[in-house]
């Protein structure tokens, strides 16, 4: 192209950019002093003036700038109307190149005279675009074709224009930090040069055509059959010449012809959207340039879309495809956990924990499109939302206005996602230009669901992959894995099973998927929500504080927690709470029913429960404290220790057992990608109708259990609830972490040897409280702010409601605490009577209700002869953890498909029988019942 031409083009680009920039800055200051009516007119004239400047420069420079202008001209949903009206001229053909240039390129590329290839060649081009022009022709064998010929020297111009565009974007990001489009231009620099190889485009065209025409080999074919588009056949290609089948069609900007032929524009754009949903979510291979010039409409009814120009085509991995599908569905469902998990899977890293704002921004891409006539309102709505997000960011990070403009909340943005979002924006612009509305959530959802459910080309997960690939620790584990395969995906969505015998791991199996819409395999470090299993962990914390001399079982709660001593609660003792005999079994039940999200406010729930009134005298009746147990014990834990609940959890259990990152009561930000999502076994749920409450179950609970079971997954899949401290129901753990906990309890607190080295990643290798990447922002000294363990800047005097902001201030503190714990001995309890306390026997028998199902905090299990030898705790839906003291055995089972516990019951029974160990009565009872804590508190004759 020559240095002179290069420098000239660069000067023109930057001179125009500066002129437009200073024009807008001047008007911005001037309109502050004029009326609203005059202000609007001034801005319209400014937009028109600068749009014409942009248009003239783009036509003069051609190349990449025309392509950029075509893209901008489709964004009627976000760009001011004058820009759309002016730049849409670029959708028409540009001035054609001379015939001599065209002939020279064709004959050089094909290696023969044009007359030997074509019986007829129409001299006037059908269209002239930024990279090539297209002529209609007839081959020597009589086939009607179109010939695409690349402009001579365009490759050098495009590559130079990319450099200029990159420099321009960097300058804009420097001048106006809130407009940082560097990730987008970087991805374009990587992908755009591929358009200059027509052999590449030919192969892309063949691939997309095969993918979209697949109706018999794609599973049921239902999704593929929903796509009905036309793609020209590739006849021949070289580096700079492409010959395609001719298809007679109407251009999308030819509104008169569309009207004359009776084309349904709504149906047309919906079909194009379906085609792109298939390409993105099913094929992982899509055209990245869906502007109006790349489509035609067939003239024959039913007027199918004709897809053209596959030069800029993007291939993405299966994992990225699933992450994009998960992102889409999380927006459709409003699921913050799934959204943050999808971000992690696709490599999008955030510097700040703001899930609601992340959801707001992500949902923008899938929002219903607007017509061009609604563009102004849409622009205002987007601007208002952006201002709200910026304000929230400013408050969260404690930044001033200047700092927040420079702060980028995104640490890393994957290139694949950029092209994906560009496609969504172009499709939105396409619908706006044709003045139709598209509900993307409705049209694209079936394709995203099919990808995550694996019901298309890949089918169900093969047996070899359904069980996580890790060596079997024992023969019984091999038999267990065969049993899980027999049960299959009808009964199991995702499951973890871990067992210790005599301090050694004999089972550590993970199988299935993380969620209904999350086909990633369950791994040993996946985190399952376990409901009332959490009570067994909370109880262990109370026992630890007693062991440390911080409180006593016989002590009144009011002595530890003064505000608790009201409304006839003065006589309630710590052992009453642990034994479910305090009379507060329904405490907060009505309040939570009317305001479910109250459970997310730790301090307020503690205040509320301190005001409650018992329904029975302390110690008189053992009635399951299904929800109140956690707050009652949690309040005692914090007041007795003088520490945050989660700090005690780490000190008493997590660090000594070295299970960091795999046992939480309320998750911290940063672990979302490892979470299992809950769903319900609807067939088993129907069996709840015949179950009646027993004497140990609050009637208010069981009468509502079916409705609650169906609604619980929705509630407990939300991020607010998962992050809350609900010590009766909000545990998140892996089976290997919970089994290790019970293996320690089975021996009275002796810490087992390190977990199996075959379990990957190693247990305890995760950071317990992950950090966000450090923000590139320096704070002045003396501002009263510090960087906390989450990587956020927070006020040193405040703590978030979940208690994570102030738990630890440095890695050095963590290391010192861990070292101290390791050096203090190999036990978490020093009392030689702690096992009697767990089960409420021996000297502690007077503290438990006679013949009650609970000891002090743990569910007691007996064998067929009625001998107490097991203790543990199960949760609603089937997850469980327990130990056999006499045989030094501990086991944990995690499930995410909630049922009445039949899967867990079968797993436990198989393992114990294979080992020759006694089976607790709840696990050996015939029928479909299992370790659902609520159901097994009712007498067997009522569980029919």
UniProtKB/TrEMBL annotation:
<dbReference type="InterPro" id="IPR012338">
    <property type="entry name" value="Beta-lactam/transpept-like"/>
</dbReference>
<dbReference type="InterPro" id="IPR004147">
    <property type="entry name" value="ABC1_dom"/>
</dbReference>
<feature type="domain" description="Beta-lactamase-related">
    <location>
        <begin position="483"/>
        <end position="763"/>
    </location>
</feature>
<feature type="domain" description="ABC1 atypical kinase-like">
    <location>
        <begin position="89"/>
        <end position="339"/>
    </location>
</feature>
<keyword id="KW-0175">Coiled coil</keyword>
<dbReference type="Pfam" id="PF03109">
    <property type="entry name" value="ABC1"/>
</dbReference>
<feature type="compositionally biased region" description="Basic residues">
    <location>
        <begin position="777"/>
        <end position="788"/>
    </location>
</feature>
<feature type="coiled-coil region">
    <location>
        <begin position="372"/>
        <end position="403"/>
    </location>
</feature>
<feature type="region of interest" description="Disordered">
    <location>
        <begin position="921"/>
        <end position="944"/>
    </location>
</feature>
<feature type="compositionally biased region" description="Polar residues">
    <location>
        <begin position="789"/>
        <end position="809"/>
    </location>
</feature>
<dbReference type="InterPro" id="IPR051130">
    <property type="entry name" value="Mito_struct-func_regulator"/>
</dbReference>
<dbReference type="InterPro" id="IPR011009">
    <property type="entry name" value="Kinase-like_dom_sf"/>
</dbReference>
<protein>
    <recommendedName>
        <fullName>ABC1 family protein</fullName>
    </recommendedName>
</protein>
<dbReference type="Pfam" id="PF00144">
    <property type="entry name" value="Beta-lactamase"/>
</dbReference>
<keyword id="KW-0732">Signal</keyword>
<dbReference type="InterPro" id="IPR001466">
    <property type="entry name" value="Beta-lactam-related"/>
</dbReference>
<feature type="region of interest" description="Disordered">
    <location>
        <begin position="752"/>
        <end position="810"/>
    </location>
</feature>
<feature type="signal peptide">
    <location>
        <begin position="1"/>
        <end position="28"/>
    </location>
</feature>
């Amino acid at each position: 192209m020559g240095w002179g031409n290069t420098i000239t083009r660069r000067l023109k680009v930057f001179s125009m950019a500066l002129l437009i920039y200073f024009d807008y800055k001047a008007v911005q200051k001037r309109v502050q002093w004029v009326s609203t009516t005059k202000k609007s007119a001034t801005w319209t004239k400014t937009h028109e003036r600068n749009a014409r400047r942009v248009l003239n420069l783009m036509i003069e420079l051609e190349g990449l700038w025309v392509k950029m202008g075509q893209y901008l001209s489709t964004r009627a949903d976000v760009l001011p109307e004058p820009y759309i009206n002016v730049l849409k001229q670029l959708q028409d053909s540009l001035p054609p190149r001379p015939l001599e240039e065209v002939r020279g390129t064709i004959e050089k590329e094909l290696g023969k005279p044009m007359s030997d290839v074509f019986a007829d060649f129409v001299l006037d081009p059908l269209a002239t675009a930024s990279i090539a022009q297209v002529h209609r022709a007839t081959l020597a064998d009589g086939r009607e074709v179109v010939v695409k010929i690349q402009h001579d020297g365009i490759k050098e111009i495009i590559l130079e224009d990319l450099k200029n565009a990159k420099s321009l974007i960097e300058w804009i990001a420097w001048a106006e930090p809130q407009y940082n489009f560097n990730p987008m231009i970087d991805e374009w620099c990587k992908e755009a040069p591929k358009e200059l190889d027509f052999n590449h485009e030919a192969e892309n065209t063949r691939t997309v055509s095969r993918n979209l025409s697949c109706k018999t080999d794609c599973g049921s074919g239902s999704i593929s059959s929903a796509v009905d588009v036309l793609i020209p056949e590739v006849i021949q290609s070289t580096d700079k010449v492409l010959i395609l089948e001719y298809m007679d069609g109407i251009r999308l900007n030819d509104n008169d012809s569309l009207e004359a032929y009776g084309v349904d524009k709504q149906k047309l754009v919906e079909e194009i959207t379906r085609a792109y949903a298939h390409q993105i979510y099913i094929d992982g291979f899509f055209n990245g340039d869906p502007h109006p010039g790349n489509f035609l409409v067939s003239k024959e009814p039913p007027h199918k879309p004709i897809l053209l120009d596959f030069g800029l085509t993007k291939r993405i991995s299966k994992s990225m495809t699933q992450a994009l599908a998960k992102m889409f569905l999380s927006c459709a469902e409003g699921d913050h956990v799934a959204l943050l998990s999808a971000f992690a899977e696709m490599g999008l890293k955030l510097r700040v924990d703001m899930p609601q704002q992340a959801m707001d921004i992500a949902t923008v891409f899938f929002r219903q499109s607007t017509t061009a006539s609604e563009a102004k309102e849409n622009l205002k709505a987007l601007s208002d939302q952006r201002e709200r997000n910026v304000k929230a960011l400013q408050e969260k990070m404690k930044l001033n206005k200047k700092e927040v403009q420079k702060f980028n909340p995104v640490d890393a943005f994957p290139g694949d996602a950029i092209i994906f979002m560009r496609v969504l924006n172009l499709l939105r612009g396409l619908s706006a230009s044709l003045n139709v509305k598209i509900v993307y959530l409705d049209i694209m959802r079936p394709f995203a669901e099919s990808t995550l459910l694996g019901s298309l080309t890949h089918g169900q997960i093969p047996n070899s992959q359904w069980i996580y690939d890790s060596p079997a620790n024992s023969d019984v584990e091999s038999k267990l894995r065969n049993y899980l395969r027999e049960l299959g995906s009808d009964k199991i969505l995702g499951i973890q099973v871990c067992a210790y015998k005599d301090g050694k791991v004999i089972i550590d199996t993970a199988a299935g998927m993380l969620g209904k819409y999350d086909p990633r395999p369950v791994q040993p470090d996946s985190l399952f929500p376990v409901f009332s299993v959490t009570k067994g962990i909370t109880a262990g914390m109370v026992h630890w504080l007693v062991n440390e001399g911080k409180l006593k079982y016989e002590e009144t709660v009011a002595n530890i927690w003064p505000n608790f001593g009201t409304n006839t609660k003065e006589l309630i003792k710590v052992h009453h709470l642990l034994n479910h005999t305090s009379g507060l079994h329904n405490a907060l039940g009505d309040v939570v029913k009317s305001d479910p999200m109250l459970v997310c406010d730790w301090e307020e729930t503690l205040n509320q429960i301190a005001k409650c009134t018992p329904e029975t005298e302390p110690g008189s009746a053992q009635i399951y404290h299904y929800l109140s147990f956690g707050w009652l014990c949690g309040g005692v834990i914090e007041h007795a220790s003088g520490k945050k609940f989660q700090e005690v959890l780490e000190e008493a259990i997590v660090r000594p057992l070295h299970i960091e990152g795999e046992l939480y009561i309320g998750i911290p930000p940063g672990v979302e990608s490892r979470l299992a999502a809950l769903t319900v076994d609807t067939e088993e749920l129907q069996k709840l109708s015949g179950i009646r409450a027993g004497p140990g179950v609050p009637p208010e609970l069981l009468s509502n259990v079916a409705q609650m079971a169906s609604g619980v997954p929705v509630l407990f899949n939300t991020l607010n609830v998962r992050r809350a401290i609900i010590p009766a129901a909000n545990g998140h753990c892996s089976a290997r972490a919970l089994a290790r906990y019970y293996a320690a309890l089975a021996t009275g607190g002796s810490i087992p040897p390190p977990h199996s080295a075959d379990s990957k990643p190693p247990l305890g290798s995760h950071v317990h409280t992950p950090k966000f990447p450090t923000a590139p922002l320096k704070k002045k000294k003396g501002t009263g702010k510090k960087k906390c363990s989450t990587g956020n800047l927070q006020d040193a005097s405040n703590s978030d409601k979940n208690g994570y902001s102030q738990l630890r201030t440095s890695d050095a503190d963590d290391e010192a605490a861990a070292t101290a714990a390791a050096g203090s001995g190999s036990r978490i309890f020093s009392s030689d009577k702690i096992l009697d306390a767990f089960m409420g026997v021996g000297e502690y028998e007077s503290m438990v209700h006679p013949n009650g199902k609970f000891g002090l905090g743990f569910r007691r299990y007996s064998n067929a002869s009625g001998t107490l030898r097991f203790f543990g705790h199960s949760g609603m839906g089937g997850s469980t953890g327990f130990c056999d003291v006499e045989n030094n055995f501990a086991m944990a089972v995690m499930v995410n498909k909630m049922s009445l516990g039949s899967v867990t019951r079968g797993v436990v029974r198989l393992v114990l029988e294979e080992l020759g160990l006694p089976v607790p009565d709840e696990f050996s009872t015939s029928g479909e019942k299992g370790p659902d804590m609520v159901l097994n508190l009712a007498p067997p004759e009522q569980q029919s």
